[in-house]
Amino acid sequence: VTNGGKTTLAEKLKKMLPNCDIISQDDFFKPESEVETDERGFKLYDVLDALYMDEMVKSICNWMKNPASSGVVTEELQNTCENLKNTDDVFILIVEGFLLYNYEPLNELWNRRYFLTLPYEECKRRRSTRVYQPADTPGYFDGHVWPMYLKYKNELEENASNIVYLDGTKSQEELLSCVYSDIIQELKKLRE
C-alpha cells in the first residue's frame, strides 16, 4: 500500500542485516511524459505500465549473479546476533515496492514476501502529508490510487501464496522486529 512504510522498513533492515542491499521499485518509474493519462486527467502511476519492470528484473538478476560487487560493505555489519557472524557468504537483497507480486517474472525470485496493509483513512491521511513530483491532483487518491491498490491486492490474494501480511498501523519498531525475526529464522535454515 502507498505510504505503508515499505521504504522505512527496508532501510532499517539494511542497517541490521549482514551483506544486505535494497532495490526500490520507485527507481523504475517512467518519466511523466511516458505515463498514460485517463479520461479524468489522472496520470496513471499506480499501474505496472508506469514502470520499467523489465529493467527492474534485470537489476535484480544482475545483483543475484554477483551480489558481492553490488556495493554491500560487509565490514559495516551492525548486527549483534552471534549466530550470524559467519554469514559472509550469504547476501540479502530487499526489493521494495508497491506492485512487486503482480508482475509474474518476479514471482519466481522471492524467498520471502511481505505485504504492508493500511486502512483507507490512515492511508489517505499519510498520503496527504507527502509531496510527490508531479503533485497529486484533487481526487487522485480516491479516483486512482486507492482503487488500483484494491485491484492489485485482490489479484495478489487470488494468485499468490506464502505472503506475510503486515499491519502498517503498527509501530515501526514492531514491524521491524517481526520482519527481522523472520529473516533471521530464514538465515538459520540456510545454514542448516
Automatic annotation (TrEMBL):
InterPro entries found in the cross-reference section: P-loop_NTPase (IPR027417)
Keywords for the protein's UniProt record, in alphabetical order: ATP-binding, Kinase, Magnesium, Metal-binding, Nucleotide-binding, Pyridine nucleotide biosynthesis, Transferase
Position of the signal peptide: none
A Pfam family annotated for this UniProt entry: AAA_18
CDD domains: NRK1
Keyword Cell wall biogenesis/degradation appears in the UniProt entry: no
GO BP terms: NAD+ metabolic process; pyridine nucleotide biosynthetic process
GO CC terms: cytosol
Pathway: Cofactor biosynthesis; NAD(+) biosynthesis
Catalyzed chemical reaction(s): beta-D-ribosylnicotinate + ATP = nicotinate beta-D-ribonucleotide + ADP + H(+); beta-nicotinamide D-riboside + ATP = beta-nicotinamide D-ribonucleotide + ADP + H(+)
One Gene Ontology molecular-function label: nicotinate riboside kinase activity
Keyword Nucleotide-binding: yes
PANTHER family in the record: URIDINE KINASE (PTHR10285)
Family according to the record: Belongs to the uridine kinase family. NRK subfamily.
Protein name: NRK1 kinase
Record lineage: Eukaryota, Metazoa, Chordata, Craniata, Vertebrata
